[in-house]
Design brief:
Layout: H1 3-18, H2 38-44, E1 51-52, E2 54-57, E3 67-74, E4 81-104, E5 114-124, E6 129-136, E7 143-164
Antiparallel strand pairs: 1-6, 2-3, 3-5, 4-7, 5-7, 6-7
Keywords: Signal
Pfam family, one: MBF2
Length: about 170
């Protein structure tokens, strides 16, 4: 990754973590499906294999009163590159459970890169939450992830997808 790419990525992440209006990145909300309960979702999709992503608290990265949580899956390899990224910020009048389904590639039928590593960086009000792969995965050209945060008024995420175009 070049020096300028790192600077741009750092600036974007800084905007997301700061929570200001500069941190809001517009995305087409029709591009993802809201999953209200992962267990109901799993029951509606027989044979679904759910895989949890590794979860870590990122110390000192979130704005006051919030936590920064990192979820990751797979591992970076020497020949992979950042093939896609997306981000969003959601705010609610009162604390609630939030679930978002993220898909790569965003449009079904598109051919993506063979994924090697996925990283989700979330800012939320409470530690409780999870991220699950519900379709596709590492080594495949698509992935669908359900991202959950519990009891939060402020929620933002940045999703980074690394892979190889082979």
């Amino acid at each position: 990754m070049s020096k300028y790419s790192l600077i741009l990525l750092s600036a974007l992440l800084g905007c997301l973590v700061s929570g200001g209006s500069a941190g809001t990145i517009g995305v087409d909300r029709s591009a993802f499906q809201v999953v209200k309960d992962i267990h109901i979702f799993a029951a509606q999709h027989p044979g679904l294999k759910i895989q949890a992503l590794e979860k870590q608290i990122v110390p000192g990265k979130a704005r006051a009163g919030s936590l920064s949580v990192r979820y990751n899956l797979g591992a970076r390899i020497s020949s992979d590159t950042l093939v896609f990224q997306t981000a969003d910020t959601l705010e609610f009048p009162r604390a609630q459970d939030v679930s978002v389904q993220l898909n790569y590639p965003e449009k079904s039928g598109d051919s993506g890169a063979a994924l090697s590593y996925v990283e989700l960086i979330c800012t939320q009000d409470a530690y409780d939450g999870n991220a699950y792969v519900v379709a596709g995965g590492i080594g495949q050209r698509f992935i669908s992830i359900v991202l959950e945060a519990k009891n939060t008024k402020n929620f933002s995420y940045q999703a980074l997808y690394y892979g190889q175009w082979i």
